[in-house]
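Lecture 7 notes: from sequence to structure.

We start with a single chain of 356 residues. Read the sequence below before looking at the structure.
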Amino acid sequence: MGKNNIIKKFLSVGVQLSKDALDHFIINEKDIDVFIERSGKIKERPKIVTLSTVQRVLSTPNGLSIGVKATSFVAEGEKVSIRSLVNDLTNKYNLLKHILEGKNGLSKLISINKISPNTKEFSIICMVNDVNRNSVTVEDTTGELTLYFDDIKDTILPDDVIGLMCEQKGGRFLIKDIMWPDIPLKRGVKKSKKKINCIFLGTEVSEIYIENGEAILFAFGSPRKLNLNNVKSTEHIFLDENMKEKKKSVFKPPIIVELNGINVVILSTNLIQKYKKYWKKEEDIIKNLLKRRDIDPIQDITGQRYTSSVLESPPDIVVVADEGTKSLNYKGTTILSVSKNSGYYIDLNTREVKKI
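Now the structure, written as tokens:
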């Protein structure tokens, strides 16, 4: 079919492809019609489709979430190279730019190369290159710019994709305000149509009892025998960060799990530790990752490669195994921190959370 014809076919149904998704369809043309047919049944199909989305849709019957579908964020077996890192950052910028363009507030939005000495007030969508004490160097696809600030409460990280409201004063470009991709404030709390009970257990929990028996069960740590008193487990999944080889029903976080329309993101403790130099509390780290719509904003040549680190659709639940035991809400997203000897039970039909 050829690269250009594939692009045109997807554009005709309102879809743009990231580079890695396009590469997949160039090699696997038979998947094109299957993906378009199945993805058309998804209510929140993203306008820019990444390889992770392609893999999820193609591996799920009818393109819909049926039962439990877990997908890793990590591109297994793929090492980061300079070329792949540049491609991944470009895809990330395009995805987050699209989210930012859909928000209100970025008035007089222009590209960096359009800024002149006569430009007084403007907004840009950019990726952060460098952060200094009172300035940041940013870029978009057209150029690079240094901006200054006096007092910004938010922490800006390298590789952040943000919207900046700026003004030119005294020969310098100043940041007036920041807009993050973030989760929509007015988003409703998503609930499953069917009654689905979901349990998350800490690494040292081996016995539980709940009043309502049928459940999907996630246990952090290596596989072990669990005594499930009054629990009929329809699915039983272990979440092992130290897993070295693939095993059935064992997954290595970070992963995204689809439970009949409810998206659950399970982060790794290594990710949380990485960002404790910026925010001390795990709940603050998770909130800031959600604000960025990015599970790992700072990526480099020494890290792991992701199919995509961008949260294209806002997650409904975010879970991490950490020292604390906490449950809180962030703009309709439930955040759970599960300690080694605790657990949580969630009724996905009501979104009620109970500590075990």
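The longest helix spans residues 82-101. Keep this in mind for problem set 3.
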